[in-house]
């Protein structure tokens, strides 16, 4: 089995502007994604939702000098909103399973490097 990080990018305004029914539907889709993982041969090792990007801190050391910036490093249309750390036989399995997630996400799947 190989480990993959499933990164969920979204425009934070989608959640902020969603009414209770829409938010409930997003949660339902995440529950279905979690509940049906075994049907796809996927096992979750961890998953978390992230606080809004405005709460981020960015540490940079370009010339050996450390600077810490509060808030996002770059203004982008989509922000990292959460992740699932999954174990699966191959990337195609993870991608097929990811279709169960809410459609407003851009989903990046990356294999974990074995060190």
General description of the model:
With about 120 residues, the chain is α+β, with helices and mostly antiparallel strands. It has a single domain, classed as Dimeric alpha+beta barrel (Alpha-Beta Plaits, 2-Layer Sandwich). It is built from 3 helices and 6 strands, in the order βααββββαβ.
Cα-atom Rg, whole angstroms?
Answer: 16 Å
Number of helices: 3
Mean pLDDT: 93
Overall 3D shape: flat
What string gives the helices and strands in order? EHHEEEEHE
Query: What oligomeric state do the depicted chains represent?
Result: single chain
The CATH superfamily turns out to be Dimeric alpha+beta barrel
Instruction: Count the E strands.
Output: 6
Indicate the low-confidence ranges by residue numbers: none
Report the CATH topology name. Alpha-Beta Plaits
Query: Which strand order does the major sheet show?
Result: 2-5-1-6
Q: Report the major sheet.
A: 4 strands, antiparallel
What's the CATH class, please? Answer: Alpha Beta
Question: What is the SS-derived class?
Answer: alpha+beta
Q: How many domains?
A: 1
